[in-house]
Each structure stands twice: as C-alpha cells, then as structure tokens.
Amino acid sequence: MNFIQAIKSGFSNYVNFSGRAIRSEYWYWVLFTVLGMIVTEIIDYAIGTPVTYWIFGLAVLLPGIAVGVRRLHDLDRSGWWLLLSFIPLIGAIVLIVWFCTKGTDGANRFGPDPLGASGQFSPRPAV
What we know:
By secondary structure, the chain is mainly alpha-helical. The chain has helices at about 5-10, 25-45, 50-75, 90-100. The chain has one domain (about 5-100).
C-alpha cells in the first residue's frame, strides 16, 4: 500500500472498526497526520490563531483511532488494547512495538489476511 492509498483508506474507513490494517497503511496514516499537523501549525503561526491545527486534528481523530484498532486486529489483538496509550510512556512503547510487528499470517478472528497468500496488498472494498 502506498501513501495515497493509505490516506484514501483511512478516510473511506473512518468509522470502520472491523477488519485489519497492514503496517504500511497504519504508518502512512501516521506520517500523513504528522505532516498535516506541521503544515497547520505553520499556517496558524502565520495567521496568529490556532484554527487550522484544531480543525485538522478533529478531522483525523476518528479515522486515526479506527486505523489503530484495525492495526491491532491485524495482530489478532482486541481494539481495546489501544487504551494502553493512556498509560504514560510504557503504554506508548508497547503500542509502538506492536504496531511495528508483522501481522498474523492468514485469517484470524478479525478477518482474512489483507496481504493475501501472495504477500502483496489486495485492496479491500470500501464500506
């Protein structure tokens, strides 16, 4: 999955908390969010008020949670594990390690392997 596909997938599945998300989908979404936050910070600095930063942050909040839950599903873990992020430092470290880990091969309780048998990404239909 490339950068553009990941952004499209994030926004088209913004309330889809079922299924699985591969590593590239998650990490490209994180890259998009960080770059967007930097750009909106610069714009807000130029205009003197933090308007675009908060609008962008709200726009990517729910899709970001959804892609994080789907990423955990790819590891055969419940989306509730995302609540580890509320434990200072240790929770974030555990989640980063998990998000960097390869997903389970083959189908798991959250759905079929998004990479398929060939190891290549096969796009899932938008819900």
